[in-house]
């Protein structure tokens, strides 16, 4: 009887590990696809129609929002927001009309940006990967793991902001 349980245990371990490896392959393939699209979009920016607009919702120090179109389809939205002691860059990437990647960079200066000698003292970059309108990976990883609810909320907020920028005139 012990041999039967040992065989069952070994099979469970083997099959559960193969499921984990299969999931890792799927995740790796998904991330690889998103990274390929990101590179392709950035490599072809000169070929896309560009529309620059102003967004007063986030800052009064100045900003620039640029949408890049391939035909009627938005491929990328680049938003730069300036503050007194820093700036924020938001880039949204789309594939078949859906958000697939969001890049956020926050730059902090040692003194107000308009003062001579102002220098960037720190940069915080975060990458958000989406699949089927769901946030699937955040890099660098948050210092604490995010709950499913927190991930869903972050995903919805990011998609909502991307949608707002798509409609901005």
Features:
169 residues, 7-stranded antiparallel beta sheet, 2 helices, 38% strand, globular
- Domain module count: 1
Output the radius of gyration: 21 Å
Strand order of the largest sheet: 1-2-3-4-5-6-7
**Strand content range:** 35-45%
Main β-sheet, in a few words? 7 strands, antiparallel
Mean pLDDT: 82
Distance between the termini: 73 Å
Number of helices: 2
Order of helices and strands: HEEEEEEEH
In total, the number of strands is 7
Estimate the global geometry from the Cα principal axes.
Answer: globular
Unreliably modeled segments: 4-26
Helix content: 25-40%
Structural class: alpha+beta
How are the secondary structure elements laid out?
Layout: H1 2-43, E1 49-53, E2 63-70, E3 73-83, E4 86-95, E5 98-109, E6 120-131, E7 134-139, H2 148-167
Antiparallel strand pairs: 1-2, 2-3, 3-4, 4-5, 5-6, 6-7
Describe this entry's structure for a reader.
The protein has one domain (3-167). 37% of the residues lie in helices and 38% in strands. The chain contains two helices and seven strands, in the order αβββββββα. The chain has helices at residues 2-43, 148-167; strands spanning 49-53, 63-70, 73-83, 86-95, 98-109, 120-131, 134-139. A seven-stranded antiparallel beta sheet has the order 1-2-3-4-5-6-7, with helices on both faces. It is globular and about 45 Å long. The chain starts with a helix and ends with a helix.
